[in-house]
Amino acid sequence: MIEIGGLEKSTLIDYPGRVAATVFLLGCNFRCPFCYSSELVLPEKISRQPRILEKVFFDFLKERQGLLDGVVICGGEPTFQKDLPDFIKRIKDLGYLVKLDTNGSNPEILKELMGDELLDYVAMDIKSCREKYDLAAGVRVDIGKIEESIKMLKKGKINYEFRTTVVRTLHTKEDILSLAKWIGGNPSTGSGQGKYYLQNFRAEKTIDPKFEKVKPYPPDFLLEIQKEISPFFEICEVRD
Ligand code: SF4
Asked: Mean pLDDT for the chain?
C-alpha cells in the first residue's frame, strides 16, 4: 500500500515541458531544517494528515487520460515506500510519463526503478556540498549513497536534473562552488555535464521554526553564483 498525503491535480512547473499531476507520498528519512513540507515528514504531523486512497488517485488518473502527460511522484521521500515499483507500474500502464523527485539517499531503489524502465525523469535534490551535507539534511547522511545516485544518474540514459535550495544560513558561495565541482562535469576538458538548478529559499512554514525568519539571498547573488558554476554543467539556471 502506498501512503498518499496529497495531490496537485494539474501543474505546469513540476515536470519540465509537461502538464502533470503531482502526488505527495508520506514519510522522509531527512529532516532538512528549511523543509516546507513538515506535514509529509514529521511522524506526529503525518498521523494527522488526511490520506488519499489509492483507488481515488487511480480513478482520477483514468479520468484525466489524454489531458495530462505525466505524474510527478514526490514527498517526503518516495523511495522508502516499499510498494513504489508497483505503484509506478500502474501509473505507466495508464500511459503516463513518470517523474520521480528524490533526495538520492536510496540508490538501490533508484537502480531498480531505472533498470525496469519505470522512470522518465528524475529530479535529485543536492542538499549541499559534500562537507556540509549533514547540516543541510538535518540528519547524518551516508554520503556514499548520495554519490552512488549521482553517478547512476550521470551514467544513465534517462533525463535527470540536480537542484539545490540555496539557504542564506546554510550555503555560502564557496559551498555551491564546491558542490558544482563535486557533481558537475570537468570544465577543463570543455565538458560541462547535466542540468543543475539553483532555487532560492523562501521562508514559509519550515521544519525548524528558526528558518521562518531567514531572508532569501538577493536574486543577483544567485545569478553571480550561476555564472561561476555554469562551466560545470550543460545547463545551469536559477529557478524562481
Ligand atoms: S526537503 Fe528534506 S525533509 Fe523535506 S521532504 Fe525533502 S528531503 Fe525530506
From this structure: 96
